[in-house]
Specification:
By secondary structure, the chain is an alpha/beta fold. It has 17 helices and 13 strands. The strands form three sheets. Strands 1, 2, 3, 4, 5, 6 and 7 form a seven-stranded mixed sheet that branches. The protein has a four-stranded parallel sheet with strand order 9-8-12-13, sandwiched between helices. Strand 5, helix 4 and strand 6 form a beta-alpha-beta unit. Helix 6 packs parallel to helix 12. It is globular, with a radius of gyration of 23 Å.
Amino acid sequence: MIDFLFEDIENLTNFNTCNDTNTSGIKRFGISPLVSATNMYYVRKKVKSKLNFLPHTEKSDKYIISSSVNHSPDDWTGYNPKVKSLFEYLSEKYLNDLRNRKALLLLDQSFEGYQTPWLWKWFHDECEKYNVSPECIVYVTGNMIVEDVYDEWVKNNDIKEKICVIGYPHFELDVAMNCEQKSLSDNKLPTFEDHIIHKTKNDIKTFSCLNKRIRPHRVWFYNYLYQSGILQDGLVSMNNFMEHGYWWEGKVMEIEIVKELNSSLPLKVYDLGNDTLDDSFYINRFNPEVCMDTFVSVVSEAHCGDSDDTLFLSEKIFKPIASRHPFMVMGNRGSIEKMREMGYKTFDQYIDQSYDNLPTHERLLKIVDSLKQINSIEDKIEWFKKMEDDIEYNYELLQSRINTKPPKSFEKLHNYYKNFFKVLI
């Protein structure tokens, strides 16, 4: 059993004296997605839980203080003087117990994959300032290569005491839950048979690539699609963007090209805007019509550049799986490989996925080349049919994440807890 202490036991939150909100209106601190997901597993399975939730007034000498941290580290750490350090909001009891190694502080940023360059130094500097061992800090993040990134920093900086870092792809479970709800509704997601019937009767585009928020990598990829001449073969959404040179990953886009691209925007799918409603609507929305009307999804992820030092898998990669669709990833290097590590089929027999480990701009250009190869396939229906087993396997694997066992990332937390407190559970 692992003790978790909360200042607000009803809502499972800490840092309750902090009233800061981020620019989107989301509170700076909230409920840990990893803890919430693990608790949900035990509740759904109706088995004995390893989680013991207690009010912060309880006496315990082996417990976790858990909280989500929202937005980028610039918003939640206190590195930026616009807000106080998060350590300022720890109660005297929490601070004393951290100093005496009676508690662990779990900071869960799994909703995001930001890898800010100064973050590791900030953690270690704050630990020194507040007389807390770095070993008392557990940092959970959506960055799936966080262990490698942190270990490299530790090596380069000759660090003796390390924090615990854990990568967690929380959006996999989020999409699985939403998919389950759709399966119980009247508005179900398409079956593979639905795809074949629809694709046989209609004119189908080769690919989709949906872009909402303007980011440099999306502007660059749109440019590569535009220059390739295959935009008309896809369902592509793109909003207008600021007219300035887009410096990204060692290249700058000439302003003449930016103006030329912008002149044909916004590009809408089904003539519908994608920036008129609250962000949460688009995050939770599936796009089954887009999947039905195309043969492959090009997932436009939130991060892409090699210099980002992250590998973030958002809800965007799991939505095509829920709609029984093959996918490519316009995202961080190694995204396809990471999906394979997680157990998913990545259609290597049917789609040239060799872009996955190329440098940033080469990666985007190779994705365009792969799309051209698919575009040249004469009988795309038969090509699509060959992927049925892999498509169904991915769908079933996604659904299994709800009930089979707690998240793997929780097992890492569990093991760290046992080793830190030297207890048998």
